[in-house]
Amino acid sequence: MKDVASLSREEAKVELARLAKVLHSADKAYFQEDAPERTDADYDSLKRRNAEIEQRFPDLKRYDSPSEQVGSAPSEGFQKVRHSIPMLSLENAFDESDVTEFDRSIRKFLGMSDDDPLAYTAEPKIDGLSLSLRYEDGQLVHAATRGDGTIGEDVTANALTIKDIPARIKSAPALLEVRGEVYMSHEDFSALNARQAEQDDKTFANPRNAAAGSLRQLDSRITAKRPLRFFAYAWGTVSEALADTQEGAINRLKGFGFATNPLMTLCNGTSDVVAHYRRIEEMRATLNYDIDGVVYKVNDLGLQTRLGFRTTTPRWAVAHKFPAELAWTQLDVIDIQVGRTGALSPVARLRPVTVGGVVVSNATLHNEDYIAGHDASGGKIRDGKDIRAGDWVQIYRAGDVIPKVADVDLSKRPKGAKPYEFPEECPVCGSPAIREEGDAVRRCTGGLVCRAQAVEKLKHFVSRGAFDIEGLGAKQVEDFHCRGWIAELADIFLLEERDRASEKRLKDQEGWGDKSADKLFLAINERKRIDFHRFLFSLGIRHLGEAAAKDLARHFNDWSPLAAAAIDAAKEPAMDDASQAALDGSPAWKEFLSIDGVGRTLVRSLVLTMDQEAERDSIERLAKHLEIVPPDVQSSDSPVAGKAIVFTGTLSRMTRNEAKARAEALGARVSGSVSAKTDLVVAGPGAGSKVKKATELGVETIDEDDWLALIGDA
User: Fold this and answer.
1) Domain check: are 260 and 396 in the same one?
2) Would you state the pLDDT for residue 74?
3) Contact between 658 and 677 (Cβ < 8 Å)
4) Do residue 249 and residue 354 come from a single domain?
5) Most C-beta atoms within 10 A of its C-beta, which of 47, 85, 117, 376?
6) Measuring CA to CA, which residue among 551, 544, 557 is closest to residue 610?
7) Is residue 100 domain-shared with residue 192, that is, in the same domain?
8) Residue 228 lies in a domain
9) Which residues have a catalytic role annotated?
10) What total of structural domains would you count in the chain?
11) Contact at 8 Å (CB) between 249 and 301?
12) Same domain, 544 and 692
């Protein structure tokens, strides 16, 4: 498999779509059903690949990106608890270079040099179930699982049966929310499984499953019989600060009577944290509980506050995970799959093999260069070894929806095995499959004539990140398309009307009935009201990911002005003939490129889409069935909520990234260039043309001190 640095944009987009599907399924199995379908190492490797691709192609980030998700929806069997501060997940690091990059990004965000001291705490990452404990006047009032990060399950009665969790604590702040991990020791796990077997009850696959299943019992008497433990490692809402440092706060929790991990230590810089990681890795087999890595946190709580949070992760912490596993098996045959944008994606069909506790039968092969043993620039992959049917291959469960081929054993290659010839025609519709210059992917030119592309486009439309229509998934879409019921996106919203006029009613088909059919039509009707950014993402426009969809939605606010701008941009000289400089200078292109996070490649894709009459008409037919909801403007007391802001020049009291993050957190839209739609320019020393442009347009310009005073950070 080609590494992330060599991926084309289309390869990246296809991989992100597949990663989202598999990781969402894994989250549900792990967090909601307590029955993980993947090993931790496998899951982590998938998320790592997802994060690396999103970092390289930020505009491809999906609305339903796994990096935007925390846990899974809470079970219906428990009362719901809304976390006053979301319980977020952590970014992952997998090697020393990732740890170095984590440190570098923090220093860059804070404007620190490489020589400035920066201390971290390092502690084992427990493989258990996250739990929040809320104490009021020292009394435990409720305990809640993480759930989806915002809403968890009320398991107070069960938590009170765990000996490490005090019902009452002395000398605590009036309000104290303690966060930590519920787990089960190896000894207790073995004893529990032995008892379960003796009683002919269900045994558990591993301590994590046992802990999660025990804590989430509807009958607390069952939980009381289970040997659960609890490590405290963080806090949520508090009425007063616990300390000035992470280390001090954890010691304070320990003083309240909570068990904290004795292996947590204070480290000075990345060399110290990695050294501690190695020590813990060596101890891993001797510990009496499961861990899957080491967590590093910035020790200074003041710096943690400045660093703040991304959508689902804090900037000031990272989980350095332990490595995944490898296995050898035989490759039987290479198949070709055709994606939504026509990409021909080769897949290795394998003799099933267990890798890290999961049975693997497929591996991604990405493109013809990857199979041939080189990247798009001719550089060697796997030391230049090509891949052929019959080869014995090493499978590495890391970084893709399905595993990748890490190596080929040429000594076991069958005699007469021939190099794989990549098809030059689409295997689905027979149309020419063209590889454009500079693109690593070969694509079917059949467009919507190609059944595979049409079906994949429809599947994307109903996916979780797009319209997310309950009861209308990939299987149903494929079935309805085969029956001729839906050929384009708008047809989905005509299903009920056509069904009532048809002799072949949906309710009469195998697997359907009155209730299920009515439920589907209700779900479709409920999605006629859709957020603008989700509508944009659902269209499946090449290079248009979740992040860029949000940026475009905030800028244009509605579909009509965006479509008009794209049509105007398409009226420029033919893009294949015009220089990029000429296009950039046109008013329509300048407006698109002024949007922070929107680049030329995406604009070109948008313009090409709207310049195709059939595609444009198809979107317009869809839009007629919908109420497209403009982006919400943050309702807060902030005077910058909903305003378009441009930062220019040098900021002395915060970095540009820090200023942007703070502005967006207050509901502002940050742009990279000044236009008539700009509300405010914040200018530091060295500001030039943007201030001049603001003056010409009559846009208010202030300095950094005035900006901080405006937002209340002076």
Assistant:
1) no
2) 42
3) no
4) no
5) 47
6) 544
7) yes
8) yes
9) 125
10) 4
11) yes
12) no
